[in-house]
Automatic annotation (TrEMBL):
The keyword Lipid metabolism appears for this protein: yes
Active site, per annotation: S53, D179
Keyword Lipid metabolism: yes
UniProt GO MF annotations: triacylglycerol lipase activity
GO cellular component, one term: cytoplasm
Name of this protein: PNPLA domain-containing protein
Lineage: Eukaryota, Cryptophyceae, Pyrenomonadales, Geminigeraceae, Guillardia
Keyword entries, A-Z: Hydrolase, Lipid degradation, Lipid metabolism
Species name: Guillardia theta (strain CCMP2712)
Locus of motif GXSXG: 51-55
Ranges for domain PNPLA: 19-195
GO biological process, one term: lipid homeostasis
Length: 256
């Protein structure tokens, strides 16, 4: 389990830059590379984060200052223990337990305190475990009592029905929840949502990386370890280019 980490002094929410991580399945590892690239070049302690699905993990890791290379190597270790690379089904059906253990080992003990009112996590609440009754409602989670609460919120946000653990949904605070990106996929709406109508957010979306998109990996595909490493490196490169082009600097200046 991770050690506690010092929490930065709070600022009013409307004065903190907001970075948004949408869903992306395996493209999480591109987002992880982006987080690693940002951590190397700038101090993100004054940022807020919003995430849905895989993006919720990126948001929590970024807020908690988790070493993304350490996260990559631990994920590799867990995958090898579960024989993911030789398993016919790949990650299907076993990914959920792996993610839970991974989060528990990586996140600092005071992760809930760090993320409360700084990370806005999105899941989707449904009225039936068969997902047959509408409407699908967006569930925003931004307050966490314990590290376990935080991890449970992450698990609800990333819950791809059946794929993650063979179950259609995950319970969170009495709600039946599924993957936080589903409403955006079904409604074909853009990902530029801003919690509480705040100032413009900076979107970290894998579809904006043309080099990455040229690989044409399926978002739930179990690609090789070398390809995951390549994806991670592409994310770092994207972050460095964003900083060098002063895209991030211009965004931050909107809050000054």
């Amino acid at each position: 389990m991770g050690k506690s980490r010092a929490k930065s002094e709070p600022q009013p929410s409307d004065s903190r830059p907001l970075i948004v991580f949408p869903g992306g399945g395996i493209y999480f590892w591109w987002q992880a590379g982006v987080v690693q690239g940002l951590q190397k070049r700038i101090n993100v302690d004054s940022f807020d984060f919003t995430g849905a699905s895989a993006g919720s993990l990126s948001a929590v890791f970024a807020a908690c200052g988790v070493d993304m290379m350490q996260a990559f190597h631990l994920a590799q270790k867990l995958a090898e223990e579960k024989n993911v690379w030789t398993r016919k089904e790949g990650l299907a059906g076993i990914w959920g337990d792996m993610i839970y253990q991974w989060l528990d080992e990586l996140l600092p003990e005071n992760a809930a305190e760090i993320c409360t009112d700084r990370v806005d996590m999105v899941a989707v609440s449904v009225t039936s475990v068969r997902l047959s009754f509408l409407p699908l409602k967006r569930k925003s989670i931004t307050r966490f009592k314990t590290k376990k609460d935080l991890i449970e919120a992450c698990m609800a946000s990333v819950h791809v029905p059946m794929f993650l653990d063979g179950k259609m949904s995950r319970s969170l605070d009495g709600d039946i929840c599924v993957d936080g990106s589903i409403t955006f996929v079904l409604r074909n709406k853009p990902w530029h949502f801003k919690p509480q109508d705040r100032k413009p957010s900076l979107m970290i979306h894998h579809q904006d990386d043309k080099e990455l998109m040229a690989r044409k990996w399926n978002f739930l595909e179990t690609i090789s370890l070398d390809q995951f490493e390549e994806m991670f490196e592409m994310g770092q490169k994207y972050a460095e280019e964003m900083i060098d082009k002063k895209t991030l600097e211009s965004f931050i200046q909107e809050y000054s």
